[in-house]
Design goal:
With about 250 residues, the protein is α+β, with helices and mostly antiparallel strands. The chain is about 20% helix and about 25% strand.
């Protein structure tokens, strides 16, 4: 897929020929736009609405798909884009027909893109710590309705463990589900923990029988030129991770 001048990149993973994916980056923009400078796609973060609408329209036009923008609420609900509408409250989406794109906005939380090896279904999940802890990945993978061994996953840019400090309450939410998840939390000497969202996602996916997991090597907090980060900046824009079926 060749896209001219659109801030972002094609994820590096073995997608079937019928699957397309794209992850936006911050790009460049007028410094006068402040925390939203660049290619902000979040309409809920205080940026000028008309500018966000224009960015979203450009994204859809250049990618040649129809992104369905969810109202992400840090939950575990998923929607089928065959009949879902923009603004639906959900944190995961799947689709089996060409053209409509599953899209997750983020600025530190972990977007997870999913497809099957046959290229018959794609999905995306917004996996912040609450969604991960409560089972958003498990729910959307089950909804895909394919053997777990046939599922491919891509971990899109998120905050890395070295910059993501959480309390023991967060750690306990995960460990109560599976004691092996303790390996994704390192005590930092302040009675708090550095949380590895990528590590948690890999362990949760492995428990489902999904071994083909790619990505997970970016840090939204550390790379301020390419990514927005809520932990770093507080008020900021959003990138988007998309996956869809091509005709």
């Amino acid at each position: 897929m060749t896209v001219e001048c659109l801030p972002g990149f094609v994820p590096d993973w073995p997608m079937p020929a019928s699957v397309r994916a794209w992850v936006t980056t911050r790009g460049t923009g007028n410094a006068a736009d402040g925390p939203y400078a660049g290619f902000n796609l979040g309409a809920h973060v205080g940026d000028a609405y008309d500018r966000v609408v224009a960015n979203r329209a450009r994204l859809a036009k250049e990618l040649g798909c129809e992104p369905v923008w969810m109202n992400q609420v840090h939950g575990t609900c998923w929607v089928d884009l065959a009949d879902a509408h923009a603004g639906v409250a959900a944190d995961a989406a799947l689709v089996r027909r060409p053209g409509r794109a599953c899209v997750v906005m983020s600025a530190d939380c972990l977007p997870v893109l999913l497809c099957d090896r046959a290229g018959s279904v794609v999905a995306a999940a917004h996996a912040g710590w609450r969604g991960l802890a409560d089972g958003v990945l498990e729910r959307v993978v089950a909804a895909m309705g394919v053997p777990s061994g046939d599922v491919l996953a891509y971990l899109a840019p998120a905050i890395s463990a070295s910059h993501y400090e959480v309390g023991d309450d967060v750690r306990q939410r995960f460990v109560a589900h599976n004691c092996q998840l303790a390996a994704a939390f390192q005590c930092n000497g302040r009675a708090r923990f550095q949380c590895d969202l990528y590590g948690v996602a890999r362990l949760r996916l492995a428990a489902l029988g999904i071994a083909a997991v790619f990505g997970g090597d970016e840090c939204t907090f550390a790379d301020g030129k390419r990514f927005y980060s809520y932990r770093r900046d507080g008020v900021t824009g959003r990138i988007a991770s998309l996956i869809w079926l091509n005709d």
